[in-house]
Structure formats: structure tokens, C-alpha cells
Design goal:
heterotrimer, A mainly alpha (261), B mainly alpha (304), C alpha+beta (369), A: MetI-like fold, 77% helix, globular, B: 304 residues, 13 helices
């Protein structure tokens, strides 16, 4: 076990290293990427707040994530009910069909949507971006919510029914509170999925419509990267870690991410 | 009844007797969305790949032909690109599983803050944007960056190293990126191994190695195969890492697809390349799944 | 028993239900009058819970009709049936406190909040659980949760109360207590009650009538005493309590009586319908109906010789194992007020009142006793 422990912590260090290294690089005083950093300055962290382009992409990513998460969860929930509780012949096929976008390599999907959007006039539009993200968030939300719906206690619904509540009342007063945790988890995870998505956004966002990861990518790839990028990277990493720890402690990450595997 | 409550009540009674209609209505948004924006575009893509040339305003529907596929399958350049993709995917898969399996094993045996810490580290690449990880590795792999400094301190290399744009660097970063997926699946797979089988074997005197080989491995084979399939399909179709870490040096299919799709604007060829990538991924998936069937049948014999 | 439409609260008319080809309820018919306490008693899988769900409207019958208050109700949704129901797991809403749980049936009907407050207090008094309004179900013990579930079901003043094994999740002591309380609440409110259980003790203690079910059918419906003392067949007899089962052959039939013979034992019993000489019958005698007497003494002339094999002191009674010839019989007797109980090896004389011997036709597949 000791060897295993050492191995594990070695890997842990290697997993943390790339993220951690962004911090010192972001503290560099000079506008180029260097490790060890040259000088010591917090100017790049502050530069995040004055970089209008960057701020714009952050806002766009947030709105995109919000839209993709809310709409995705909203439309996936009824599907979860139908598939979980339905007793009709095509049920398994339906479930496979709804989760099939997960199997598709994103680059293939991105190209297909690029061409398709061009034909129907949605190219490089925010709406197109939202739709493309929905294609990947819906299967994910669906699978998460399927688990939530499956764990509903039907006897509570029967009690509510016999006590005189209408189906709407039963849903709002008995089922929704039970679904609360699952819904919130689904929302958070789909938001993260959308916010972190690069490939789809890269193909489908126009020059002025970039999301944060795309902007970061372009600066890395094309040029013009200053330590502000490591700075924002580190900030993102911190937020991600805090979010993870919070979620793990409250709802248990493995349970939700593993879905019904 | 004219009250809104009354209207709702009669709507509910209407719905009560027509479950199929209600189901259809509930499914409609998702079905429509997926039909329109997933199945249809993919079908169009397949169709597009059979065009002889890029559609233009004058020639919106060029004649159909398999010229793109012929080009891909006969030109050694494209064949090499495809082979590189398979190689990249394969090496990443092996590396990822080799590392993720022991880690998942360890994770299932601990709890509390230690478990959270290891989970955070291993699941980081999906919680934090993948770009952050790539940037970090980019910095580490810079000439005279940290990795090179460590390696020369250990006496393993001399002089300047071009770590970026090398195959090993690409595999390392891809492994880093896809570790979380493998860890997640393997942890849940390992947790499902019934502890009483392991205890029984231990009581009978089996060593840990034997237990792992004869009990745990066969039982977790489905998880291994599932993660292999996932990691392969994700890494073979990855675009970001090959272009940022591999540069133009290591040509894989996604780079070609991006290039022909957005820069060189030869959509039919890009589409054909995308289809080829898809076929490769599906083929490997089937291979792995078939291998699992054969392996797990043997595992079942040993397990009873 | 047929009731006028004004009196009949529930009537099942030849109701059947199958799941995926497997019949769960076959042609069940029964009727309940106002204020009656009827128990569906049977082993698991006998269809009693399915029957209850059919009454509640949670399931629709494949054939037959459910009548509520004299009106056919097959297509009536549960919420319009004016029922109260308590499930085995009590199914309290976990995210609502006791007050909201109990008030639920009224709050979905937009009853005024003063009225709700009044009725909730009334219910909490009825189930003897004052002061827990603010607590949540997870903070309550099993017994308390059960009372809350009961209060929740009764607050709407339902025409019919349905109870699905409500006591099986309680420990033995609590169960006895609740049996008595349920009976009290029933008589206080005079609410028609249909109980489903597999415990014959519950059925005997609480019911006005018991309907014994097996494999989807009702074997008999009658008062507890009659079901216990005059079961129609071996299954019902064995389900309601212990009994010595003897396979006998009819020697002769005469004047409403049969002379039965078994392995050298000969005794008389009431003749069941259609009895003929040569038939095989199963005779059941409950252990408490076999009376033991000293071999010397006033009853020495009557009865049959027996040897006591075993005597187990069980506090309120003694359980004897007797050998009569080759037959082994169980006897339950009250400990003697004075003197000693029988000891193993002692001889005794056994009598049994003729009315306490029940005979039914030997069913195919009965194990040889």
C-alpha cells in the first residue's frame, strides 16, 4: 500500500502542478510568459479588470452557461419523467437517442453545426452558440435527472393523490421538493459543462462573439498572450476547486458525474 | 368553469386519459432540438462529404462523388494523419488507464479529506477549464521551463530541449486532460466489487497481487473497457491540445478538420475527414467492446 | 350480506387484476357497511394490498366493479374518492413538519387557516400526540410517525379509511399498544375501516369481520370468532392459529354426525356437507380446545388415554406435547390454580367438546400429518 500511496501522491502533484504554475507566472512583472517569473507584480491580476475584451468574453460565457443550463435542465426534466416512468416499447431506444450526442466527438459535431448554421443563417450568432451547447448539455442533464426521478418515493405521490391533491399540486408540493437537490446539481454541472466548452465555441463563435476559453485559446495560439492569461487561468482554477469541494461535501461528486453507469 | 383553476383541473383530467399524448408533448422540445440540431446536421455532414467540391453560391449543390474519400484513403499523407490519430489515442489510453487504475484503487480505500484532496487533483481538468491545464503544461514544457530544468538536474538531458511539439509531450498533456474521465468510471467500477469476495479470498490466503489479478480485474473489466473507449474517443478527436502542445508538427485528424473547415474552406474534404475520424472512433469502440465480451466471459468463470 | 345503497360504503363486485399475465386478484367480492372494521388477512402475495390499491383507485381493475357509496367508481381518480389511506411506510412528506403533513388534505382544498389550525389540533388530540406540530418526520419515532400518518388520513373526515399493514414497521410492544388505539379511534369516529395485514393477531383484535385471502381469492369472510372456530378449510384454519391436523377417514354417517377413524383413534364430530362413508377428511382441533384430566378422578370415564411427552411452561399457559397411541398432539392449557401441571411421562385423559372439532374435505396436496 505504501508504494501505491507514494505513486498516488506523485500523480496528485503532477495533476496540480500545471494549475499551480500559472500563479507564479501571472506574478511576473514583464509582459511575457516566463518561468521562473521575471520580477514580481500583481499588475496582471488587476489587468483582468481593465481588459475590456476579456471582461466581455467572461460575461458572454456566463450568459451562455446560464442559458444552456436553465433551458437544458428545463427541457430535460420532462424527458427524464417520460423515460423513467413510461412503459412503452421504444423506451430504451428513446433513452439511447437522447444521450447519443455524448458519443459524438465534439469536433465532428462542431463542423456539422458550422455548416448547418451557415445554411440557416445562425452562423457566428449567440443563439447558435446556445443551441450548440444545448446539444451537449441536454444529454448530460437528462442522465443526471433520470437518477433523481428514479429515486422519487412514489408512495408520497400516492398519499398526496388520495388526500385530494391534483396532479399539479402533487408535483409542486411533493415531488419538486424531492427533486430540488438533483435539479440544482444538474444546473451546476451543466453550467460548468457549457462554461468550460472550447471546441464547439471555437468553431461557432465569430470574432466579436468569443467566449472566455476561446479568447484564451486565441491569445495562446495566435499570439498576443500576456501574463493576464495565466492570471485569469489561476482565478478560474481557484473558483473551480472551491466549487468542487463544496459540491463534493454537499452532494457527492462521484454519484452525479458517474450517472447510471 | 371559467376560473383558471377550473381550466387547469379540466386540463389535468384531459391529460389523465391520454398518457401517450402527454408523453409526446413532454418529449417534444428535446426531440425537436436533437432532430434539428444533432441528427439533421450530421446527416448533412455525411451528405456534404460526398460533394466533389466546395459548394458556392453559383454551385450550391455540386455533384456527388466519393472523390474525397478516395483522396483520403489513397494519399499516404492523409493515411499518416489517420494513423497518427490512432497512435495518439492509443498511447493516451494506455497511459491514462495505467495511471488511473491504481489511483482509483487507492481512492476506494480511503475517505475524508484525503479522498477529497485526491479527488480534487484528479478531477481538476474537468472542473477547471481545460485551457488552464494546457496553459500550465505549456509553461512547464517551455524551453528551459520547469520540466527541462528538473530533467537536467536529474542528469537525464543536456542542453536545450524542444519538448513542445513533441509526441511524448502531446501524450502527457492528453493523459492529464482525460485522467478525470477514467478515474470517475474506474472508481465507481471498483466500488462495485463486492467486498466479501475479496475477504473470502484473503481468508483463503491469496496475496494482494493474486486478488487483483483474479478477482478485481475481471470484475472491473467493464469499467476498464468503458474508460478505454471514452478516453480513446476523446483524445483521438481532441483539437486544442494537439494544436497548442503539438503545434503543426504532429498532424492529427482534428487539426486537418479545423483547417479545412475554417481556414482553407474545403468543407467536403473536412466533412470526409470528420466522417473518417468518426468511423475510426466507432471501430475502436466496437473492438474494445468485443474484446471485453471475450475477456469478461473468462472472468466470469474465474469469479464464481 | 347485502346492504341498501345508503348503507353500503364499499362494494367490490367480482374484481380482478393481473400484472403482466400473473393474476393478483381473482374475482374478489365483498361489501362493507358504515362504521364497519373489515380486515383483509393473508400471506404475502395473496392479493390483499392489490385489492386495497384497487379500492383506493391507485390501480384500475381488469374486470369487475368497485362501488363507493353505492356508485360505480372504477374510473374515479383517487382524489375524488373521499378516502383516507395509511401506507406501511407511513409515507409522511419529509420536507414538511408535522403540522403541514396533517394539514395537507385540507390545504389542498383551500380550507381557511383558522379552520385548519383547529382541525389539526383536534387530530393531534385524537391520536394523542400533542405538541409535535413543529417537528419533522425524521425527528419522530416510528410510533409517532404512525400516529401522524393516521391523523393526516383522518383529518378530511373520509368515508373509508384504508390501512396497508400500518403496524408492521413497529416493534412488538408498540404494535400491541397501537392495535388497541386503532380500535379506539375507530369506535370514536365510527369511520369505516379496511385493514390489510398478514398478522392474524391484528385481525382478531381489531376487526368486526375478517376476509381471509389466498392466491388472489377470498377464502371466507366472517366474524373473528367464527373464522377462528369454524374455518372453512385447512388453509384458513392454519393461518388463524395453531391447530392439530389429523387426516381421518369417515367410518359412518348418522344423524348429522360422522364417526371418524384414524390409526386406531375413533371419535365423532359434526358432519360437514356431503359427507359419505369412506371419504377422507381433515380434522382440526386447536390446542386450547383439548382438555386434560387426571386419569383418576371424575372425568376418568370419558376421554381418551394419553401420555404426556413434554410440558413447556410459557408463563400464562403451558404447552403440552401428548401422545395418543401413535399420534402426537399439541395441547395448550392454563396452569392449574392448585396442584401441579402434568409432567412428562404422566398419563392423562383427553376430552374435546364436539363443537370444537372442525372437519373439512382433505385437499389434494395436503401433507400427511
Amino acid at each position: 500500500m505504501l508504494g501505491l500511496r507514494i505513486f498516488t501522491y506523485l500523480i496528485v502533484a503532477l495533476m496540480l502542478l500545471p494549475v499551480l504554475v500559472t500563479f507564479p507566472v501571472a506574478l511576473s512583472a514583464v509582459p511575457r510568459i516566463s518561468f521562473p517569473p521575471v520580477g514580481f507584480s500583481s499588475r496582471w491580476f488587476l489587468a483582468i479588470l481593465s481588459d475590456q475584451v476579456l471582461l466581455g468574453t467572461i460575461a458572454r460565457s456566463l450568459w451562455l452557461g446560464l442559458g444552456a443550463a436553465l433551458i437544458g435542465v428545463l427541457v430535460a426534466l420532462p424527458c427524464a419523467f417520460v423515460v423513467e416512468r413510461g412503459r412503452f416499447r421504444g423506451r430504451d431506444l428513446l433513452e439511447t437517442g437522447i444521450t447519443s450526442p455524448r458519443m459524438m466527438p465534439q469536433i465532428v459535431l462542431a463542423l456539422a453545426l458550422l455548416v448547418f448554421f451557415e445554411a440557416i443563417g445562425l452562423a457566428e450568432s449567440f443563439v447558435g452558440l446556445v443551441i450548440s451547447h444545448l446539444v451537449i448539455t441536454i444529454p448530460f442533464a437528462f442522465r443526471t435527472l433520470l437518477v433523481s426521478v428514479a429515486t422519487l418515493d412514489r408512495r408520497l405521490e400516492w398519499s398526496s393523490d388520495v388526500l385530494g391533491a391534483s396532479p399539479t399540486q402533487t408535483f409542486l408540493r411533493v415531488m419538486a421538493p424531492q427533486l430540488k437537490t438533483g435539479l440544482i446539481a444538474a444546473l451546476i454541472f451543466t453550467f460548468i459543462l457549457s462554461f468550460n466548452n472550447v471546441t464547439l465555441a471555437l468553431f461557432l463563435s465569430g470574432f466579436g462573439e468569443r467566449t472566455l476559453p476561446v479568447e484564451m485559446f486565441q491569445r495562446m495560439n495566435v499570439g498576443g498572450m500576456t501574463p493576464v492569461i495565466p492570471a485569469i487561468s489561476f482565478v478560474l482554477a481557484l473558483i473551480g476547486v472551491v466549487l468542487f469541494v463544496f459540491l463534493d461535501r454537499t452532494i457527492g461528486v462521484y454519484r452525479f458525474l458517474a450517472g447510471r453507469d | 368553469m371559467s376560473s383558471p383553476r377550473g381550466a387547469l383541473r379540466s386540463a389535468e383530467d384531459f391529460a389523465r386519459g391520454r398518457p401517450m399524448l402527454v408523453s409526446l408533448l413532454l418529449l417534444a422540445p428535446v426531440l425537436l432540438l436533437l432532430l434539428l440540431f444533432f441528427f439533421a446536421p450530421l446527416a448533412e455532414l455525411a451528405n456534404l462529404s460526398t460533394f466533389a467540391q466546395q459548394p458556392t453560391r453559383q454551385v450550391p449543390r455540386p455533384p456527388h462523388s466519393l472523390v474525397n474519400y478516395v483522396k483520403i484513403l489513397s494519399d499516404p499523407f492523409y493515411l499518416q494523419v489517420a494513423a497518427t490519430s490512432v497512435l495518439v489515442g492509443g498511447c493516451t489510453t494506455i497511459a491514462t488507464l495505467a495511471i488511473a487504475y491504481p489511483i482509483a484503487f487507492y481512492v476506494t480505500r480511503i475517505a475524508g479529506w484525503e479522498r477529497t484532496l485526491i479527488s480534487v487533483a484528479c478531477l481538476l481538468p474537468i472542473f477547471v477549464n481545460v485551457i488552464v491545464g494546457i496553459l500550465g503544461w505549456y509553461i512547464l514544457l517551455l524551453p528551459y521551463g520547469l520540466v527541462q530544468q528538473v530533467l537536467s538536474a536529474l542528469g537525464l538531458v543536456e542542453g536545450s530541449l524542444q519538448l513542445l511539439r513533441s509526441f511524448p509531450a502531446l501524450v502527457v498533456v492528453l493523459t492529464y486532460e482525460h485522467m478525470p474521465f477514467a478515474v470517475l468510471i474506474l472508481v465507481s467500477s471498483l466500488q462495485a466489487v463486492p467486498i466479501d469476495k475479496i475477504n473470502a479470498a484473503r481468508l483463503l490466503g491469496a496475496s494482494t497481487a493474486r486478488i487483483v489479478a483474479n478477482i478485481i480485474m475481471p470484475l472491473t473489466m467493464p469499467g476498464l473497457v468503458a474508460s478505454a473507449i471514452l478516453v480513446f474517443s476523446l483524445s483521438a478527436s481532441s483539437y486544442l491540445t494537439p494544436i497548442l502542445i503539438g503545434g503543426q508538427r504532429i498532424r492529427v485528424l482534428p487539426l486537418m478538420i479545423f483547417s479545412y473547415g475554417t481556414e482553407l474552406l474545403n468543407w467536403p474534404l473536412a466533412a470526409a475527414l470528420a466522417i473518417v475520424l468518426l468511423v475510426i472512433v466507432v471501430a475502436i469502440t466496437y473492438l474494445f467492446a468485443a474484446a471485453m465480451n471475450r475477456l469478461s466471459k473468462r472472468g466470469q468463470w474465474e469469479m464464481v | 350480506m347485502t346492504l341498501g345503497a345508503s348503507e353500503s360504503v364499499l362494494r367490490l363486485d367480482n374484481v380482478s387484476k393481473a400484472f403482466q399475465g400473473q393474476p393478483a386478484v381473482r374475482g374478489v367480492s365483498l361489501e362493507m357497511g358504515r362504521g364497519e372494521f373489515l380486515t383483509l388477512l393473508g400471506p404475502s402475495g395473496c392479493g390483499k394490498t392489490t385489492s386495497l390499491n384497487l379500492v383506493a383507485g391507485l390501480l384500475q381493475p381488469d374486470s369487475g366493479t368497485v362501488f363507493l357509496r353505492g356508485e360505480p367508481a372504477n374510473t374515479l381518480p383517487p382524489r375524488h374518492r373521499r378516502l383516507g389511506m395509511v401506507f406501511q411506510s407511513w409515507a409522511l412528506f419529509p420536507h414538511q413538519n408535522v403540522f403541514d403533513n396533517i394539514a395537507y388534505g385540507l390545504s389542498v382544498r383551500s380550507v381557511s387557516s383558522t379552520e385548519i389550525r383547529k382541525r389539526v389540533a383536534e387530530m393531534l388530540g385524537l391520536v394523542r400526540l400533542p405538541g409535535v406540530e413543529g417537528k419533522f418526520p425524521s425527528q419522530l419515532s416510528g410510533g409517532m410517525q404512525q400516529r401522524v400518518a393516521l391523523a393526516r388520513a383522518l383529518i378530511t373526515r373520509p368515508d373509508l379509511l384504508l390501512l396497508d399493514e400500518p403496524l408492521s414497521n413497529l416493534d412488538a410492544a408498540l404494535r400491541k399498544e397501537m392495535q388497541v388505539e386503532l380500535r379506539q379511534i375507530h369506535s370514536e369516529l365510527n369511520v369505516t375501516t379496511l385493514l390489510v395485514t398478514h398478522s392474524q393477531e391484528e385481525a382478531l383484535v381489531m376487526s368486526d369481520r375478517i376476509a381471509v385471502m389466498r392466491a388472489g381469492r377470498i377464502e371466507c369472510i366472517d366474524t373473528p370468532r367464527r373464522v377462528y372456530n369454524r374455518p372453512p378449510n385447512r388453509f384458513v384454519c392454519a393461518f388463524l392459529g395453531d391447530a392439530n391436523m389429523l387426516e381421518c377417514e369417515i367410518e359412518a354417517v348418522f344423524a348429522g354426525e360422522v364417526m371418524l377413524r384414524r390409526n386406531g383413534l375413533r371419535f365423532a364430530a359434526e358432519a360437514p356437507a356431503g359427507a359419505r362413508a369412506g371419504q377422507k377428511l381433515t380434522v382440526a382441533i386447536r390446542p386450547e380446545n383439548l382438555l386434560l384430566h387426571r386419569p383418576t378422578g371424575p372425568e376418568a370415564e370419558t376421554g381418551i388415554d394419553a401420555i404426556v411427552r413434554d410440558a413447556i411452561f410459557k408463563g400464562s399457559h403451558i404447552q403440552y406435547a401428548l401422545m395418543i397411541g401413535e399420534e402426537r398432539l399439541e395441547v395448550l392449557a392454563l396452569p392449574p390454580v392448585d396442584g401441579e401441571p402434568f409432567a412428562p411421562g404422566e398419563r392423562a385423559r383427553v376430552t374435546v367438546p364436539k363443537s370444537r372439532i372442525v372437519a373439512f374435505p382433505a385437499e389434494a396436496g395436503d401433507a400427511h400429518v
